[in-house]
Amino acid sequence: MFSKLTFISKTILISPSPIRSITTSNPCYISTMSINLKSPVFAGNPIRSKTPKPTDPVSPTSALQTLKILLSGDTHIQEPSSPKFKVLPFRKGRPLTGSTGDSVKKWHLGWLNFVDFKDVLEGSEIKLCDDLLVYLGCKNKENEEEDDDDDDDDDDDGVVYWAIDVSEGFSLVEKFGSRQFCFVELRTLMVATDWADDSAMGELAIAGHARALLEWHNTSRFCGSCGEMLVPAEAGTRKQCIKDSCKKRIYPRVDPVVIMLVIDKENDRALLSKQSRFVPRMWSCLAGFLEPGESLEEAVRRETLEETGIQVGEVVYHSSQPWPVGPNSMPCQLMIGFLAYAISLEINVDKRELEDAKWHSREEVKKALTFAEYEKAQKTSAYKVDQMCKGVEKGQNLATDFNVESGELAPMFVPGPFAIAHHLISSWAYQVSVNAIETQTRSVLSKL
After folding, report:
1. Which stretches of 221-370 are DSSP H helices?
2. C-alpha–C-alpha distance, residues 106 and 192, integer Å
3. Which one, of 125, 112, 332, lies nearest residue 218 by Cα?
4. Within 13 A of 196's CA, how many CA atoms are on the CB side?
5. Can you give the pLDDT at residue 409?
6. Given the DSSP bridges, would you call strands 94-100 and 182-183 parallel, antiparallel or unpaired?
7. How far apart are CA 144 and CA 158, in angstroms?
8. Which of 39, 252, 309, 371 can bridge 348 by disulfide, Cβ–Cβ 3.0-4.6 Å?
9. What span, in angstroms and rounded, lies between the C-alpha atoms of 82 and 266?
10. Is the pTM of this model over 0.70?
11. According to the model, what pLDDT value does residue 87 have?
């Protein structure tokens, strides 16, 4: 469980796995959960590890020029060093997906090389132009050499990755279906991902980044200053107003959200809440959007008081996670996680926000961390994706992806390892005192 440990400072111990301790007047905690992630779900994007120089053939600027040449048909101009292009189509926020495996199903993104993609578009409702394609990132030989854990072969050297929204291409659904590809909800893929599979986690991060950019493009069509149209700039990573006297540039939107586990230190309890949209038996952390002119700590205290009537004193940062599976109007939320210590205990639930909120003992919370049910949900969702790609299952209710019910039902459960709420809760549930941290860390380091 303890992989490479990195000491950030004297007060913070952190590792690539979700194991962290923060020294405060309260006891410090290390997560001892059995599910370890190198980075939060939707983070750790393998094609965005390094920003290429503008002169690099795989940079947004250079890749866009090559793209324009390819679209013009003037391909004889290309040098041998020109990068290869891979394209990932999306439809209504859903990435193109395929599935492999016999007994163990494993989804993968439906990447197409540029020539194949142009062939598929032939005769469809989509007229390909450079403004439709959005630059996602790249891989080149330099990236491969710097990442000792990357097992990709030489075929991925000098590759530029693009995303495109083909929602208007109704005939494409059948075309891709004939290749056993289908468009799958990102939330479904999130649950279907084996969190022990680094490759699948990387693909999920790429898909999340792509959806966030494409949905931002779809919702940001006009200039907020003058009302004129916005057009893509810098290979779709920015947008710019077309009016000469304005030329305002806008950047992809990120909506910060605080998410907190409120702790009753004296009685060894944690506050969990449920909303009407949750599946039965699921409880989670409180959360809310940051308001203008507000610090993160202030947002934690305000949201907790507004939703539950509980006052919070000390607020301790835990971790963060990009969350590109929210509504289309907010294509990329940034979940910023905290442990918050209550200074009042009486709950007064705002029924407009929550269905219920209750204090739960540590033992109750441990039982809610139903790892066997998370694994069952993952395998079930992976099988559903496989059936969808084969055309057996046309669609599904998203709520079923989060229904982790098994033969013997636990009284309650909390979100799975794909959500930061899970790691906030488990880091408190399996706490180790601050004095034990040093001893345990030394023991682990001696084994590395």
Report:
1. 296-308, 362-368
2. 8
3. 332
4. 7
5. 65
6. antiparallel
7. 10
8. 309
9. 63
10. yes
11. 97
Residues in the chain: 448
In angstroms, the CA 177 to CA 170 distance is: 12
Q: Round to whole Å and give the CA distance between 16 and 12.
A: 13
3-state secondary structure of 31: coil
Q: Are 215 and 419 in contact (CB under 8 A)?
A: no
267, with CB counted inside 10 A (0-12, 13-18, 19+), is exposed
Question: What would the 3-class secondary structure string for 119-155 be?
Answer: HHHCCCCCCCCHHHEEEEEEECHHHHHHCCCCCCCHH
Helices (H) and strands (E) in the chain, counts: 11, 19
In tens, the pLDDT along 9-47 reads 222 222 333 333 333 344 444 333 446 677 889 999 999
Count other Cβ atoms within 10 Å, centred on residue 167.
18
Structure tokens at 229: 């149209």
For the chain, what is the radius of gyration of the CA atoms? 23
Backbone angles phi, psi at 401, to 5 degrees: -70, -25
Q: Tokens in use for 91?
A: 């439809």
Residues (pLDDT < 70) of the chain are 1-36, 74-82, 141-157, 393-409, 432-448
